[in-house]
Amino acid sequence: MFRSAIVRSLRASAPRAAMKTAAPIQIRSSPIAVQMAPRMVSQSIRFYSAPAGLSKDEIEGRIVNLLKNFDKVSDPSKITGVSHFSNDLGLDSLDTVEVVMAIEEEFSIEIPDKEADQIHSIEKAVEYIKAQPDAH
Amino acid sequence: MRRVVVTGLGAVTPLGVGVRRTWKRLLEGHCGIVNVVSRDERFREIPAQIAAVVPKGKKEDGGWTVSEWMNRGDERVMAKFAQFAMAAAEEALSDARWKPTTPEEQHATGVCLGSGIGNFDEIYDTVVAYEQGGYKKVSPLFVPKLLINLGAGHISMRYGFMGPNHAATTACTTGAHSIGDAARFIACGDADVMVAGGGESCIHPLAIGGFARARSLATDFNDDPEHASRPFDADRKGFVVGEGAAMLVLEELDHARGRGVPIYAELKGYGCSADSHHITAPKENGEGAYMAMKKALKQAQVQPAAVDYINAHATSTIVGDAAENAAIKTLLLGSEGKNRAIDVNVSSTKGAVGHLLGGAGAVEALFTVMAIRDDMMPPTINLTRLADGFDCNYAPNEAQPRNIDIALTNSFGFGGTNSSLCFARFKD
């Protein structure tokens, strides 16, 4: 269900779809491939991404959009740039894990569990994504 | 021991959503079995492409629309068997007029809800996601959606029930064990009211494929699904998997009297046994089934001759139906039994609703209670030819009015686990 929410939020911001394909492909089967992979990635980043990375507004907009499609948020009007997942949006600890999973998919990054556990609000999530050079 | 009576009924079955609709259609001889290839193309390679599915549609038309029973938040954390059971519990509790609000009443109310297979779709989807994406793709809801006892947990959370919260999972005997165990909780004083039953929903190509591999299913009826499940018929070929749930409100007699609610029937006996024989097949002489029925009658203090109706487990398999038939005849035509086989009233409702696995015992307990209430024996549909040895009255294809004061309902599961419940018309 949340997966479909992700799809919906992706559809809402279609122009980025092309960039999704540029996620670093880690090929570990041979040393040559390992050497090749980073070069291809850096080329693609240079080609598609703005040098300054994502703006705070864009990140926030995409996270808000994603939460609006999350069924467990009973009152979408409460979703703002500073919403706390549990205090403001009524999400429990399991919901928060799902939200962070969706954020990972949205920005094509992986967030280690320990760091994910620190993300309790939209503000924290935006801050985290802003600091990730790979997020796009 | 405290006496236990039935004061509420709820059902979501392949014949429709709601007890009244299901019972009416059952008596009219309808069948809920359909071809399911349109649900998933992968059924095409499986020899059994049919199942008894809960019809989609509006509640007022007897159909299933999940949003009419719960909000999106509850829906996404609940297995489908638990969703069906939640709807059945709501119907049963409304029927029994039991929505307690005081702490004392809530403490004295519990839930027994089991499932045979559980949330098969969730296991499958998560395995696929894990295989493709590893740990990061595992949902935090995986375990809570997977665990079978969460169905009982969800019902307790919705209604504030803080009494015993239990989940039997004994394959196709699950529903009967849930009801029997719940009655024991009441009889022993652990609770005054229990909402009890079973649910199942595993119409997935892999689950059906597994039963097909075990050679348990009817495979010659993909183009003629309504005739696939034919209990006791000479041309029976195997069972048809079904989905749905049924819940009963069981209540301590004086508690029910004190509230002045109508009593459907009394649950007088609960017998359990094991075959100790084979992983999937019953003993040919039906010894395990015989013992379960005998124990239920002993507890109920009823002679075999007094049994007016048996809702058989009979799933439409060659071996299973024959073993149960043999057991029933041994018990009801034995000492203190009836004189003639034709006076033994037995029917199987699985021709109409298929085999609900973990839900079967609960749905059939509900049918047995309704049979007592209406003095009506539900039909065994698709029964056109009887083989030698099948000489009881099976109510072939048409419901039969009968005086039904005492009835048994049987359930037998893989692993050789058997249970029989004895219901009786309530008398002071």
TrEMBL record, chain A:
| Protein name in UniProt | Acyl carrier protein
**Molecular functions per Gene Ontology:** acyl binding; acyl carrier activity
Biological process according to GO: secondary metabolite biosynthetic process
Q: In which pathway does it act?
A: Lipid metabolism; fatty acid biosynthesis
Location of the Carrier domain: 57-133
The record's comment on protein family reads: Belongs to the acyl carrier protein (ACP) family.
| PROSITE patterns linked | CARRIER (PS50075), PHOSPHOPANTETHEINE (PS00012)
UniProt keywords (A-Z) are: Electron transport, Fatty acid biosynthesis, Fatty acid metabolism, Lipid biosynthesis, Lipid metabolism, Mitochondrion, Phosphopantetheine, Phosphoprotein, Transit peptide, Transport
Annotated Pfam families: PP-binding
Task: Briefly state the protein's biological role.
Answer: Carrier of the growing fatty acid chain in fatty acid biosynthesis.
Source species taxonomy = Eukaryota, Fungi, Dikarya, Ascomycota, Pezizomycotina
Entry-linked InterPro entries:
ACP (IPR003231), ACP-like_sf (IPR036736), PP-bd_ACP (IPR009081), Ppantetheine_attach_site (IPR006162)
Primary subcellular site in the record, as a coarse category: mitochondrion
Compartments where found? Mitochondrion
Q: Which GO CC annotations does the UniProt entry carry?
A: mitochondrial [2Fe-2S] assembly complex
From TrEMBL, chain B:
Pfam families referenced in this protein's UniProt entry, alphabetically = ketoacyl-synt, Ketoacyl-synt_C
Keyword hit for Cytoplasm: no
Q: Which PROSITE patterns match?
A: KS3_1, KS3_2
Metabolic or biological pathway? Lipid metabolism; fatty acid biosynthesis
Any Gene Ontology CC annotation:
mitochondrion
**Keyword field contains Phosphoprotein:** yes
Question: Domain Ketosynthase family 3 (KS3) spans what residues?
Answer: 1-425
Q: Membrane spanning segments where?
A: none
Q: Which CDD domains does its entry note?
A: KAS_I_II
One GO BP annotation of this record: fatty acid biosynthetic process
Q: Which SUPFAM superfamilies match?
A: Thiolase-like
* Active-site positions on this chain: 172 (for beta-ketoacyl synthase activity)
Keywords, sorted A to Z:
Acyltransferase, Fatty acid biosynthesis, Fatty acid metabolism, Lipid biosynthesis, Lipid metabolism, Phosphopantetheine, Phosphoprotein, Transferase
An example Gene Ontology molecular-function term: 3-oxoacyl-[acyl-carrier-protein] synthase activity
Q: Which family does it belong to?
A: Belongs to the thiolase-like superfamily. Beta-ketoacyl-ACP synthases family.
Question: PANTHER family, alphabetically?
Answer: 3-OXOACYL-[ACYL-CARRIER-PROTEIN] SYNTHASE, MITOCHONDRIAL, POLYKETIDE SYNTHASE-RELATED
Its recorded name reads: 3-oxoacyl-[acyl-carrier-protein] synthase
Q: Which organism is it from?
A: Penicillium diatomitis
Q: What is the lineage of its organism?
A: Eukaryota, Fungi, Dikarya, Ascomycota, Pezizomycotina
